[in-house]
Amino acid sequence: MTALPILSPRDTINADVRAFLDHLRESKYAGDIEFSYASRLAVATDNSIYQQLPQAVLHPRGTDDLGLIASIASQWPSVSFSARGGGTGTNGQSLTPGVVVDTSRYMNKILEYNADEGWVRVQSGVVKDALNDYLRPMGYFFSPDLSTSNRATVGGMISTDASGQGSLVYGKTSDHVLGLRSVLANGELIETQPISVEQAKEIANEESSLGRIMRQVLATAIDKRQQILAKFPRLNRFLTGYDLEHVYNDEKQTIDLSRLITGAEGSLAFVAEAKLNITKIPKYTALVNVKYDLFESALRHAPSMIEANATSVETVDSTVLNLARADIVWHSVADLITDVEGKTMLGLNMVEYNSDDKNEIEAKIASLSESLRQSAENGDDGVIGFQVTYSRSDINKIYGMRKKSVGLLGKTKGSQKPIAFAEDTAVPPENLADFIMEFRDLLDSHGLQYGMFGHVDAGVLHVRPALDLCDIEQELLVNTISDQVVALVAKYGGLMWGEHGKGYRSEYAPAFFGEDLYIELRKIKSAFDPLNKMNPGKICTPLDSDATLVKVADTKRATFDRTIPIAFKQEFEPAMSCNGNGLCFNYDTSSPMCPSSKITSDRRHSPKGRAGLIREWLRLLSREDVDSTALTYKQFHSSWWQKLRNGKSKQADFSHEVFEAMNGCLACKSCSSQCPVGVDVPDFRARFLSIYYQRYARPLKDYFVANVETLAPAMAKFPRFFNFFLDAGVIKGAIRKTIGYVDAPLLSQPNLRVRLENVNCDKDLKILKSMSEQDRSKHVVVVQDPFTSFYDAECVEHLVKVIQALGLKPVLLPFSPNGKAQHVKGFLDRFEKTASTTAGLLNEIASLNLPMIGIDASLVLCYRDEYTKILGDRRGHFEVLTATEWLSNLAAPQKAKLLAAGSSEGNDLRDKQYNLLAHCTEKTALPKSEQQWQDVFRQAGLNLQIKAVGCCGMAGTYGHELEQLNNSKGIYDLSWSGVVQQSKVDNQEILATGYSCRSQVKRFESERPKHPIEVLSMALQQQ
């Protein structure tokens, strides 16, 4: 065994950028300046196949900061920038070797709302869904839609002139921009909105930056008008880039520079603020899901839906549908998109209608339904069935599935993954079916699989061929196919870039525009940005510049990934599977996805950021003298003395930067099921920590946490004695100072043994084996965990009482450590031993056909996931159920007792409303669990409402660690605090399924919420 080597990226920031950053730091700039290797890596990728490491990352707090960035940088011509929002671009639009300017962290305010005039003014970093959440109570929404709406920013939408579902009616982002406040490359602020041509000419006479820009725009937009109209396709998805056609309105005789900046991919100016028009939310909405025998049938039938004045027509193929079926998202739509008996659904059109007139929309749906019914009966148009829903919440679920399906394509098994590079082609809708058939032939000629989905009403279909870009030959196919698709769209009168911008496909712009118009684009670039400082290489270059455009063949993520040994990739597979879709940036605080990302607004502290860091760590590690046939903690060793010395060393080590990101993870595991491709951070985090601590000394708190399952059972025998010391101020202070642990929970008093002393539930394995099978069928085994048994014993007590009340006999299995705390802290050697021992015990119980229940779902799920990964086949086949899983599948006699409790006259709990706040691990891994609790409560005559909350901020022991205390409290305040406080005001009782959640509420509200099993127990006792 060797010592884990120090890793140095061997990358330096150039002198000009360092000088610029120093001057910026000394100015009145109020934002963040980041230049660590990890910070730069976190924005070196987006949702595309490309990778480009920037020199630094800036997070401005407002327009003044943007002005300072640009004006100070004017001293160094070589310092260039790229603005960044949500990082959701599929073509590398925001990637740069220069400096990234990210507006999403601070410039995310909604500044002004005008109901009378129907507009809103926002900063560029506002997330699209956040804006609509703000507008919804007023009855409005910002109508351009896109699949990444929960993390894409308005600034990013403006930069790419984004659009999506419903664009036939609602248009593109540019159709809703009323005005912009932007910062030029020299730091000057310009405000743009439609002005008369006469006003524009007056400005053009000025000797100013804006005057220079206006002179060129007038010369190009007016003088070249006929040439522009002849070149630009007559499509709903008109050309993205410098919108030469719409910058000049010849009917109104106006000039609007905002139309140039919108779609310019940040190559002309920084967008600071936007004034946007907003659309009234229709009163009535209906969605018709039309099912087809073939995907081609769905494509060819779509025009008839468009002719019927549908608001939108979205389509997905069988590849996408099947991936959605295999994901947890399908449970939410399974009843809304059912199979057709005796038929195979290979295509689906989702047809939406909107109206403010109920009779009108019902008449349209009735007419369409009759037509579809006849088609299905007669076998016409490939229609095999359809379903209609008017429920807005159900419609949102279906679109949620459609949006997630974009990322799900990355979950395809095997090394070949569907990827985005030629997937937003736009052709006239009437040509779409023929175009796609020829596109399919093109891909089939290369022997490729692919997934298809998109907006058939606008003639845009997203086609993602499956390639393994680590194979150099397959990477070359990206170039070949791109060239072929450019030729194909031209044949059908369309565009290569109908929705997602140019980015690294900018190399095709000169040929598309032709020499004359492309020179006009370059002139406009020169007028705005003569030194080529704003996102150089995208769209075009200044006229007199010898700079080059980025290319499809440029450096990709796979360029780096292919240098990582196969064994390394396999050991850290969850990190390698990240495709950059960025769902982990979801802004919604009621979503459990990545609480550390939400509270820090730091891309490093997201699943995508952490996966990227691990990939680079693996790549750097492979350059050292390390065995490349495997990668585990067992390969490395340093003595305790060496570890202490290493920890005190000031020598830079990239492993420290990776550790910082991993240390901020709550290990809540929401990412493992919420991420479309299943990027399981806690899994590779534990593996990383196990290796990292082979070189560096562990903090004392890690040993404290890892030994909790040894300490807690011993201390729980004398709870009064130990609680006296644990609750003493001096002891608390000492623990805080020496261990870094705060608010340590007190042991249950009385303990579980005392609580159950009158219940005959202590039966050892020998007794259970001696029973007849009939006797054993009346028993239920309770599997203990260290937190509820020793710190929340009343919860286990009530579970036992519920089992008794249902006419069964509880068996309290002797405590056997679960090991989850060891896994979280990366003690994988200990965890493997713990898992092996406990799995042996649980397999013996399983052999007796006894049902086993655990009360804390996160610990139960550890048996299913982490045990399987660490033990493999040695895990065996035992199954421990959660309380809801067991209660939802009760035998008839037990279900009758539950229903009897619901009809009992003595049940005085019926009139009370309970609010369920579910544990994030539980509800993401077991998406039916909340509904199961609600169903069980309904059977017992109880009213349980599900409340949408994110993470509580405790997550095992995370919230007890001093260094995480502020983040823990901040996460709690994001969603839990408000729901808890409102429940108090409404005289409603909250229930929490997670032990950590109950501990967190008790800590901040001085009141412990009950577990649902406690209320159910009380209801059953009242029969």
Residue-averaged pLDDT: 93
The radius of gyration over CA amounts to 30 Å
The assigned structural class equals: alpha+beta
Count of extended strands? 29
Main beta sheet: strand number and arrangement?
Answer: 8 strands, antiparallel
**Distance between the terminal alpha carbons, to the nearest Å?**
65 Å
Share of helical residues = 40-55%
In percent, how much strand structure appears in the residues? Answer: 5-15%
Apparent shape: globular
Q: List the total number of helices.
A: 46
Q: Uncertain spans, ≥5 residues at pLDDT below 50?
A: none
Q: What can you see in these coordinates?
A:
By secondary structure, the chain is α+β, with helices and mostly antiparallel strands. Strands 15, 16, 17, 18, 19, 20, 21 and 22 form an eight-stranded antiparallel sheet that branches. Strands 5-6-13-8-9 form a five-stranded antiparallel sheet. The protein has a four-stranded mixed sheet with strand order 1-2-4-3, covered by helices on one side. It is globular. The mean pLDDT is 93.
Question: Can you give keywords for this protein?
Answer:
13% strand; eight-stranded antiparallel sheet; five-stranded antiparallel sheet; 1023 residues; single chain
Question: Briefly, what is this?
Answer:
44% of the residues lie in helices and 13% in strands. The chain is of the alpha+beta class and 1023 residues long.
Record the SSE blueprint.
Elements: H1 15-26, E1 32-34, H2 37-42, E2 56-59, H3 63-73, E3 81-84, E4 99-102, E5 110-114, E6 119-123, H4 128-135, E7 140-141, H5 154-160, H6 167-170, E8 177-183, E9 189-192, E10 195-196, H7 197-204, H8 209-223, H9 225-231, E11 248-249, E12 254-255, H10 258-261, E13 270-277, E14 279-280, E15 284-292, H11 295-307, E16 312-317, H12 318-325, E17 347-355, H13 358-378, E18 383-389, H14 392-408, E19 417-418, E20 425-426, H15 432-445, E21 450-455, E22 460-467, H16 472-491, H17 509-528, H18 557-561, H19 566-571, H20 573-576, H21 595-600, H22 607-622, H23 640-648, H24 654-663, H25 670-674, H26 681-692, H27 700-706, H28 708-715, H29 719-726, H30 729-738, H31 752-755, H32 765-770, H33 773-776, E23 779-782, H34 786-791, H35 793-805, E24 809-812, H36 820-824, H37 828-846, E25 852-854, H38 857-864, H39 866-871, E26 880-882, H40 883-887, H41 892-903, E27 913-917, H42 920-925, H43 929-939, E28 943-946, H44 965-985, E29 989-992, H45 995-1005, H46 1012-1021
Parallel strand pairs: 2-4, 3-4, 23-24, 23-25, 25-26, 27-28, 27-29
Antiparallel strand pairs: 1-2, 5-6, 6-13, 7-14, 8-9, 8-13, 10-12, 11-12, 15-17, 15-18, 16-17, 16-21, 19-22, 20-22, 21-22
Helix pairs in contact: 7-8, 8-17, 12-14, 15-16, 22-24, 24-26, 35-46, 41-43
